[in-house]
Design goal:
Blueprint lengths: L2 H23 L3 H11 L5 H26 L4 H20 L10 H17 L13 H21 L4 H12 L4 H25 L5 H25 L1 H24 L1
Length: 256
């Protein structure tokens, strides 16, 4: 078995698991990106980020399509968030080589710990829609947080889906399944924007990215199907598991 084939097997397994997780609660990049960095250590970080954007975009697109067929979408909120996130993701991708990501990770770690605690102790979080915003305010908040999270996705990436779900629940008042559906479409936009930049600068390894995309799609299909079948309670539990894993990952990066 050649080294290339061994790398492909490991990368495709990671992509399948990432697609499955990402379709349910986001955060698949927390598995896929570190795994790719570990399996392909001899490539620049920007090249790894560019490569994993293709399977991420492919899997997220499949999940978004499946959700969109069964979930009623708020198009005004969605469009505002998509446009803002797309533009910000382009800026974030451009900034990858300009900023020190290690400065951002401790802040994200603290936020994640607070989110995990709030979600665990607030049993109604993500079960019922609780926010009473005017349509205009809802659109404004969607655009604002689209800018913030879109920039993060272009700059760092992993965990973007989970952060988007958090915003749609905690800020905009969606339930877990509705938040997942909207987050997938926004995440498509951020992945596409970053991919446009990375491709234009030659930071994509297509020999790895295409097979990974196929397996990410398969994982995403089954993940979205399971989330729609099981409903909010299941997604809430899965969300807590992924958030806990995210905390461990960021804690390792910060404390090592």
């Amino acid at each position: 078995m050649t080294p290339l084939f061994q790398e492909l097997i490991l990368l495709c397994l990671a992509a399948f698991a990432a697609g499955f997780i990402d379709a349910i609660v986001g955060g698949g990049g927390l598995l896929q990106t570190p795994a790719t960095l570990l399996i392909l250590p001899h490539y620049p970080v920007a090249t790894i980020f560019g490569t994993v954007k293709i399977p991420s975009l492919a899997g997220t697109s499949i999940a978004a399509f499946k959700y969109a067929k069964q979930i009623r979408l708020n198009y005004k909120v969605l469009i505002a968030c998509v446009i803002a996130a797309f533009c910000a993701s382009l800026m974030g991708a451009y900034s990858v080589s300009k900023l020190n990501n290690d400065l951002i990770k401790p802040i994200i770690l603290v936020v994640l710990i607070l989110v995990a605690a709030y979600t665990y102790f607030n049993k109604q979080f993500g079960i019922h829609q609780q926010k009473e915003h005017s349509p205009a305010k809802q659109v404004f908040l969607a655009g604002l947080f689209g800018l913030i999270i879109g920039f993060y996705d272009g700059l760092i990436g992993p965990g973007t889906g989970s952060f988007l779900i958090l915003v749609f629940i905690a800020v905009l008042g969606f339930d877990f399944v509705g938040a997942s559906a909207h987050a997938k479409i926004v995440n498509m936009a951020t992945n596409l924007a970053a991919l446009i930049y990375f491709t234009s600068t030659g930071h994509v390894l297509f020999q790895y990215a295409i097979p990974m995309a196929i397996f990410n799609i398969i994982g995403s299909y089954f993940g979205a199907k399971l989330a729609l079948l099981k409903g909010n309670k299941f997604v809430r539990i899965f969300f807590l598991i992924v958030i806990f894993g995210t905390i461990l990952r960021f804690a390792y990066d910060v404390l090592k």
